[in-house]
Amino acid sequence: MSQRQRKWHMKTRTGCKTCKIRKKKCDETKPTCLRCIRDKFTCDGYDPPRAWVFKPSQKDDLGSGSPPDKATESSILSLIDQENDLSQWNSTSSELDTCSLSLVAPSSPWAAETDRNFCQYFLSQFAPMLSTTAQWEYFWHSTVPQAAWSDSSISHAMVAVAATFESRKSGVDRTELILHRSNLAIRAFAAQQASTDIGLIMCRLFSSMAQCKGDFRTATMHMNSGQKILQEATRTRKAKSSDILRLMAPTLLALSTYTIDDSDFVTRISPDRWESFRILKSIHLEYGRLLRSFTSAHWDRAAPGTNSLLSIAWSTLTQAFSSTLHPDVISFAEDPVVPVAQIIPTLQAEEALLSIDELNAEFRSLIRDLQYNFHTAEGEASFSQAMRRRIRRLVDNYVVQAAEVEPRMTAGTFWHEYDFPHCCIDSHLSKCELSESKLYETHLGNTEVLDFERKKHDFYVEHVCQYRSGFMPT
């Protein structure tokens, strides 16, 4: 009788702690897995993502030839294990005994203890805070560390950012280290002909460092530099080839909508759509000015849902306008947004679908009414349900009209059924969490809907929260 052979499957080690202990297959829903909820267990969450970095001996002697420690050994064995699974090759212990491995330490940017410590702090503490979507998680945990390995400007900037965040959290004064590493990063960057991707990573790192200090003026200046890189890449047709540029483009354009050069776009569309584009641009600018005024004067005394609604409206307008300008670079097709094809039937059913001229007139009226509401509000600045519906209806129509101007535009809407008070403004150095129990009760355990709502939450934190995304007009 032939020996029973197990069906091959890809192993995973990313499940929650509780499922690992119970030896159950985890569905990896975050922040709390549905299997634990269904089986009435307390989900203990997930281990933070770990990026393997070559770890020299404690004496920093890269050529000592000393055996790897247990953590490094475990990482190596896990890699061997995964390779075996993929090749469907079952090795015996004797075969493993005859296997010889040679470890040659590459030239590491993390040779010094300070660098190693802050690299690990960057990966374990700083990166998770900004990993708001799957794409950004990959950016912070993989793309940036990989770039740092080969580019000293990025490695120095990583240390400076991690030290800034750690200093803010611990209260330890690390000003000298931060300034020293920032200067080294700038010098290394200036001494090379940096690629588009390296330039964008530097802009994001220095912007995040300024945000961590509460210096949003400087943060905006760094992101404006990134916007100039975007414009140049678009002009030279390099934008399509850069995944990093496509990831950062929505934020970069949102920060500089007052100075965007749209001359190329006007020559790309037919003359009969020029006036519609002009109206969309004007509406976007006027709403941005209104929101900027509201932020400086009324943000702290607004009702919880008011800030969230106004911010979502702003980022929706921004995404529609930006995707209209650069449909090949800025795409929301894979994001949890309601597309134009679904927005139109809803507006038609409500008899609320507007022409571009009607949208222009009603939006001007809305802005005047909002200004009056802000100036006359006593106590909390809040909206009636009628006003909230009015804002949503006009923003929905704006997205529809943007698609009329540029049919390849992929932005949509992502209104929420629940509020995030102040958009995490008061605790922006903490991870924004969503109440799992509230979601579960709202959607009665519907796995598909729950997953979509979580993605909407992550999308909100990345593209709406001004402390994380920069989408607020400055």
TrEMBL record:
Print the keywords alphabetically. Answer: DNA-binding, Metal-binding, Nucleus, Transcription, Transcription regulation, Zinc
Under the heading CDD domains, the entry gives: GAL4
Boundaries of every Zn(2)-C6 fungal-type domain copy: 15-43
Checking SUPFAM superfamilies in the record gives: Zn2/Cys6 DNA-binding domain
Q: Does the keyword Transcription apply?
A: yes
Q: Which residues cross the membrane?
A: none
Instruction: Look up keyword Lyase and say if it applies.
Output: no
Q: Which domain of life is it from?
A: Eukaryota
* InterPro entries (UniProt xref): Fun_TF (IPR021858), Transcr_Regulatory_Proteins (IPR052360), Zn2-C6_fun-type_DNA-bd_sf (IPR036864), Zn2Cys6_DnaBD (IPR001138)
* GO molecular function per UniProt: DNA binding; DNA-binding transcription factor activity, RNA polymerase II-specific; zinc ion binding
Name this protein carries in UniProt: Zn(2)-C6 fungal-type domain-containing protein
What organism is listed for this UniProt entry? Exophiala xenobiotica
